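Limitations
The structure tokens in this dataset are predictions for the assembled complex, not deposited experimental models. Users should treat interface geometry with appropriate caution, especially where small molecules or nucleic acid strands are included. An illustrative entry is reproduced here so readers can see what is and is not provided.
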Amino acid sequence: MPPSIQALTHIYFRHNKKFPHVWCPGCGNGIVMGALLRAITRLELEKDEVVLASGIGCSGRMPTYLDFNTLHTTHGRALTFATGIKLANPALNVVAIMGDGDATAIGGNHLIHAARRNLNLTAIIINNSIYGMTGGQYSPTTPFGSTTTTSVYGHIEHAFSIAELAVTAGASFVARSTVYHAALADQLIEQAMVKPGFAVVEIISNCHVQYGRRNQIGNAIDMLNLFKEQAVTVKKAATMDSEELREKITIGVLADRDLPISTNEYKRIREQARADQGKKSI
Amino acid sequence: MTEEKRVRRLLQGNEAIVYGALAARCRFFAGYPITPASEIAEQLSVRLPAVNGTFIQMEDEIASIGAVIGASLAGVKAMTATSGPGFSLMQENLGFACAAEVPCVIVNVMRGGPSTGLPTSPAQGDVQMARWGTHGDHPIIVLAVSSVLDSFTITVKAFNLSERYRVPVLVLSDEVVAHTRESVELPLNSEVKVVDRIAPGMPPDWYKPYQEDARGVPPMAAFGDGYRHHVTGLVHDQDGFPTQNPQEVEKFHHRLSMKITKGLDDIQLTRKFYMEDAEFFVIAYGSVARSALRAVEEARRAGIRAGLVQLITLFPFPRRTLIPYLQQCHSVLVPELNLGQISREVQRINQGLCTVVKQNRVDGKLITPQEIYSRLVKLSAGPAG
Ligand code: SF4
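Predicted assembly:
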């Protein structure tokens, strides 16, 4: 039997940390944190071999609470720090935790290049379509027409599809879930952490406080129910046209491909360089 | 293995920085191409993998310093190199390294600014930015190199200070030093004194990553070493967790600044020439210090009692070294390739002790020994001269 979430909190929460956490009651961030812990438990990873690196925003606080090697970086930059950590010590399991504004606005360039570079990293992107911590401004994933504190007349820009962006940028593994589909979320995180190469898991989450309320969707439960209605599996989505998919959320594995991993390739470069330097004797 | 022997080499300043970094056991470089710093990246891309190190070219300078900090947190000595425009982009994460106390070395080969400026001309326009570029009060060490040999020794020193004080160290070079070739005999790596950060000795359960102690520099565990801890750019308590408690916030700032103050004797490096009996003197750094030395030597030959203090450490500004000379002399000349960035520091500490005379050039050209010499001749007539 898998350990209860209470057992997991006993194992993985930092008991010397001054709780309570900063999240609003009902925030999807907690569900994602639970999914991550379940995945790590199933993978039987030692705490010492896991690094969590986050950016800035509500999601950025997650590593603070958890008993791993944890790093709370600058806004949008989690993947750059994660890159350095992984290159310096490839034995570590490095997971970057980011929000939608974090990963695709200020950190958008780092995301696409991390995907292209294909280091063996896992990126979890919690997408709640808003900047929650700063008070509910529109983000790169805010839907057209939505109301936010910086789009009170209705949002006039178009949203990124984060997972599709990661597929196009070349990530080895890309998947999407929602916080309603919590069991799927931990499965996908597990798969992502096992997958050699850059793996992205986008998790559609509820910020009922800043997004749900302002857009008349309702509370956390209403938002979760909406995700349930909107979700279609990758398989089902393949049979639907773009008009039918407009209000839908495609969940499941969007890409899973084997590509050369840059840390492995770099081993070859080291050998070559050693051989060359030996010859030159300088 | 055959015994190593010192060899004389014809090197550029940028190449000497590479040799210095490797001698200091730097094993990670992340960077982004920029003139006039690119040779550092190019050469490290060849040489680092041969010593089991890692080179990576990132998507921009923000990412470069992010990766450098990540590598350092994982226990590997790391650096980046850039020029003004890239250095501007690095300020955000530079502040992170100051706050989280992550050792790293950032070389800025200065070129004319502001903005894209003069990419292939020397300047010293980034001096105040090096001290104050990232927001908030923060500790930082800024060193300046004036020659190819300096580029080696000061780079080693930069790593050592960075490791000892857990602080980013900035090395300011300039286009002239970077691209001038000089014949130098570098010490063997085995002859170079290398300082490593202190690892925690206590059991992991006892480890408090930011605990106050007499030195003010807490031991640093690498990610993966068994000392699981939290690292953040938020103001944090001794466990590394965010805090807004006024007492803890104050303690955080106080320790960060005190750890540098406690080390001033070790950190503040200067070179003095003809200062014993100097009636007036020059304060100079970087390539300008070499013109200044020539000018002072010329002046001495002409019977003029001029001296020179060359600053290696620009920040923390070596006040205690300079004050006695400001008292001893009737005037001080501060030649710089900017509109007066170190002269304002000299004025700040001078407090009327002697006359501070600026000599500035911002046209992309060097200040020649002749130019400085003619100012010295004028000044030799006395402060009003
Ligand atoms: S503001 Fe939104 S995202 Fe942030 S904790 Fe509250 S519900 Fe969650």
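Some entries come with short summary sentences. For this one: Chain A has twelve helices and ten strands.
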